[in-house]
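Working notes for the structural subgroup meeting. M.R. asked for a predicted model of this chain before we commit to crystallization trials. I am recording the input and output together here so anyone reviewing the notebook later can reproduce the run.

Input as submitted:
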Amino acid sequence: MFQLTGRKLAIIFFVLFIINYVIAVIWSSEPDRVDIKSYMTEQAAANDEQIVTGYATTSALMLVAETLMNKPGGYLSNDKIPPSVLMDNMPNWELGALNQVRDLALIMRKDFSRSQSQSVEHPQLKIAQPKFNIDHTSWQLPSAEREYQDAIDALKIYRSQLANPTDPNAQFYARADNLVNWLNEVQSRLGSMSQKLSASVGRTRLNTNLAGEEGAAQSTFSPSESLVKTSWWEIDDVFYEARGEAWALLHFFQAIEIDFKGVLEKKNATVAVRQIVRELEATQESVWSPMILNGTGFGLVANHSLVMANYVSRANAAIINLNNLLTKG
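Returned structure, recorded in token form:
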């Protein structure tokens, strides 16, 4: 009769550990960047569709959402078994990309696809947008993957109707005011992410919540100074969430340059979009360290969070510049 001795058990656990470690390393590989113009052309040819205004943005949104589902290991945020249940870098990367998917899906539903505030929402976008907002860790019925796939399917129908010259009900309005609405969402998201990344070293922050407006008030008292510091356990989580957001935005801005070409050229703002893409590309450089380091600002050890915060802040500054060109240029 086969007996498991302590030595045999140790060997089995060691082999299982090595297998799970290798799988975790493979699944932690971040997806490659995609050229949206080429991808859009391939999609149009494969589906026998015309490339029209809005085709690039819709395709980019679908690409990012599909990547969350189809990358190595699939969608990991709601897994409950090893090795993915023990991983946190890739699930946080997924959350970052998903945040940008949610924001763009909302803007497409209420702005890009509507001619004015009184116009009717497109039915497929009305289906897709709330499905992206399910809890990203949900694994029971309905699972996050199932809801996201339903949203992608709805976007595909919308894109097909958009490219159909005989269907006037599906539209994408590439106007400056619509683009500004999305840029405001991106600014808010990146501003928050920059603050979270910078808090890796911890610093005292003055309360400026009501600065600049006479008579302003808030609900409850806040101290004039507070120490803001990201927990040591969350340093890498915030870092990879920022990389996920930047990866998604990198593709969205490529699409924006295509769909809003006329608006950007009129405002002489095309180069501003390309500068944003350039700054976002810098956030995707390879991380050669085996772990995310958290040294002090001018210490001997690098602080990867501060480096990422710099790139995110530069991208956000370029977005603010683009926003100003569209509204004042």
